[in-house]
Every structure is written in C-alpha cells, then in structure tokens.
Amino acid sequence: SNLKHLFMCLLAISIYFSAIVHLIPVSTAKNGVSSKSRKRIMPDPVTEPPVTDPVYEALLYCNIPSVAERSMEGHAPHHFKLVSVHVFIRHGDRYPLYVIPKTKRPEIDCTLVANRKPYHPKLEAFVSHMSKGSGASFESPLNSLPLYPNHPLCEMGELTQTGVVQHLQNGQLLRDIYLKKHKLLPNDWSADQLYLETTGKSRTLQSGLALLYGFLPDFDWKKIYFRHQPSALFCSGTCYCPVRNQYLEKEQRRQYLLRLKNSQLEKTYGEMAKIVDVPTKQLRAANPIDSMLCHLCHNVSFPCTRNGCVDMEHFKVIKTHQIEDERERREKKLYLGYSLLGAHPILNQTIGRMQRATEGRKEELFALYSAHDVTLSPVLSALGLSEARFPRFAARLIFELWQDREKPNEHSVRILYNGVDVTFHTSFCQDHHKRSPKPMCPLENLVRFVKRDMFVALGGSSTNYYDACHREGF
To answer: Which GO molecular function, any one, fits this protein according to its record (predicted)?
Structure first.
C-alpha cells in the first residue's frame, strides 16, 4: 500500500507540473464531480494541487508569454461554416495602478525593445507602424491616446512590452485559425467587416491595436476605427441600473466581512504597514497586491525599507485570501446578480450582431471589445462559468457563430475561454449534449438565455432588462 500511495503522489505531482508547463486552466467541477465534456477545463479533483497554491495561481495570472499555446478555437466538423467571431479581451500586462506607500516604484521599462524578453517577431514592425501615427480617426477621446507604450519608467497602469507581446501572440493565433484556415474575412475586406470598441484607457486601446496587428493580413489604418466605450461594463446607453448597484453594494459588504474574519490577513497587513511606516488602513487602501503582482510577474524583488522587507510570505497570505474571496463569491451568489444585470447589455448587443449575420449580412464579421478584468469577470459569471479562473492578463473570451452547411438555416455557437471550449459548461447549454449529439450549442439557446433566462435567474417577475433594473423591494 505504501508503493501505491507513492505512485499516487508521483502521479499527482507529474500532472501538476504538466499543467504548469502547458498552463492548462484546471479546476474541479461543481461539487467535485467531473463533468463530461469534449475538452474539459475541469478535470478530476486528483489533478489539482491539493490546496490551491497562491504562487502558482499568481503565475497563471501573469500569463508570461512562452511557448505558443494549444487552443481549441475554430474546431468544428467539416460541414460547419464559420460565420462570425466576437472577441472580448482583457488588456495585457500593465504597470500597477497603485503604489505601496513610501517604497521605490518597481523599475520597469515601458519602451518596446527588440532585444528584450518577451519578444515577438512582429514587435519591430508593430512599433514602426504605430510610430508613423494613425491615419485612422478614432472616436473621441481615443484620438488623444498614445498608440503604443513608450516611457523608460512605466507610468501608472501603462501597458508593458509583455502586454504588447501577449496580444501580438493572441492576434497571430486567431489569424492562423480564423483567417488562414476558415477565411473569415474576404481578401478585399473592408472597415465595416470589423467592429472595434475599447474603453478610454491607453492600455486597452494599445492591447486592441496589438491584437489587430497580429491578426490582420494587412494592417491598413484606413480600415481601423475604434469606438469609445465610457463604461467598463460596455453598457452603452443602458448603464443606469439601480438594482445592479444594490447587488454590488451587498457584494462589497460580503467582501468586507470576509476580510474582518481573517486574522492572519490583518496581522500581515500590520507587519507590512510597520515595514513601510504607514498606518495599516493606509497600506490596505493602497491595494498592495496590485504592486506585488507586478514585482512577481516581472521577477523584481519586493520592496525593502530600513525596517525590513515585504516578502513572499506576505504575498502568499494576501493572494490566498483573494482566492478564498473568489470561492465565497461563487457560493453567495450576490456577484451573480450583479453580473446578470452587468453583462446583459453587451451580451444583448452580441446576439443582435449574430442574428444579423445569420440573415447573411456581411458586416461586423469580427468584433473586438478591448476591456478589463471587471468587464470579463461579470460576463463569465453571467454565462454560468463559475469555475472559470479570474481573468488573467490578456485573457480572451470568444463567441463563434457557425452555420451547418447541410442545414443552412441552423446556426450554432461555441464559447471559448483562453483557448478552452467551455460551451457545455455554460448555464444555457450544459445539458444540451446529454440530449443531443450535435457538437455545438444551438444559437437559439443563447438568444433565449439573453432575452429571458437571465431575468428568470434573478428571481422576481421581471422579463426585461429595464424592469429587472428597477425592481422594487429588492
């Protein structure tokens, strides 16, 4: 039995390391039962490191570009035709948004340099193309933003070289699949076949440009037009939603109470506050994890003062609490209420675009939303992908629309998160493949979900977005 035990340990370790090498998103399915699906992101619990390792999770989040990843985008039986693709990205690696008080900022160079890692074969061409300046007119205020990062010491929140390379790589991967293999865009493609939208931050605009530069066969400024989205939820003209905000307030209260219960976290913040010589409250407000992740992702040592050093143990405690918070967030369902209302406008816009494509309309075949973790996270949650990891740098969530050539009136969707097919993990399609041999989810499932089931899931009697947002007595 000792031998058997040793063998099981070695097996678990080897699976763990192979997951690190391939950076396969692994997590257990709901209640620990592995769900049957063609490409599982939720293998059996034995393959997960027994306790979630905070450093392993943080490195997955960094998403440091290394080997080209294997991905499931564009996989379909040969009698299916790709009709349109809708891509939601989180911006790439960035400089922190917060500074740890009284410490030296991490020294990271935000100019783009060919002989520095990470590198991409298109990097120099990207820089020279961007530095010629845009012949494009973007929707205001985007035209006042720089087109690529270029400060020797990064500015707060600025995209780094790593961030640019992550999205050049995403673009290249999508180009190989959608353009070379599936011929999504015709050779003489025009501006109206792309739909491009970004928030007003330089890191999202630059990430979108890097992805497009990797993706398009000829990056012609005259065909690139980015729309500006003032809201991180991409809710356009329908952002006012009081009930959504109430869910958010309750969720923030839950977060606060969980933090109060964690005495080890309190102690860690106290220690770190002593090191940097500020009140604990001030240190916490400076959100030190954001800066510490930057140190980790860029392999820069944590800051020191004459009172000592912030160290890996401090980092592990804060990161472990973050993981715990995500776990409780899934159980308590307040965030789900926020997400269903928060993600509705952008999902509604996406199915509208898909429905027009099914009618044979040829514009907006490729849609790109360049966004933030606070954009992708609610969409993942609303779709029922509760086991999906928090959006890493340069995360991508993709909706593919397919037509069955043998039954041209039938359209199906696939949903992929970081290259993994998660279609049958979504709440609107998780039972579909038990009842049907079809390899994809019928488009009408997604349409019914967005038009009706999202509101049913909120409880109450609302059947549309406006009523759900203004429901009394929530």
So the answer is: phosphatase activity
Residues involved in catalysis: 91, 373
Residue 2 token pair? 């000792």
Tell me the two tokens of residue 33. Answer: 């039962």
Cα–Cα–Cα angle for 11, 14, 19, rounded to 5 degrees: 125
CA 448 to chain CA centroid, Å, is 24
* Structural domains counted in the chain: 1
The predicted model scores a pTM of 0.89
Q: Is residue 110 part of a domain?
A: yes
Task: Write the CATH number for 203.
Answer: 3.40.50.1240
Q: Which of 104, 4, 19 is nearest to 70 (CA)?
A: 19
| 308 Ramachandran zone, left/alpha/beta (phi>0; psi -120 to 50) | left
Cis before 118? omega within 30: yes
pLDDT above 70: percentage of residues in the chain: 88
Residue 282 belongs to some domain of the structure: no
Domain extent at residue 215: 54-242+334-470
SS3 236: coil
Please give the average per-residue pLDDT across 98-110, as a whole number.
94
**Residue 329 in domain:** no
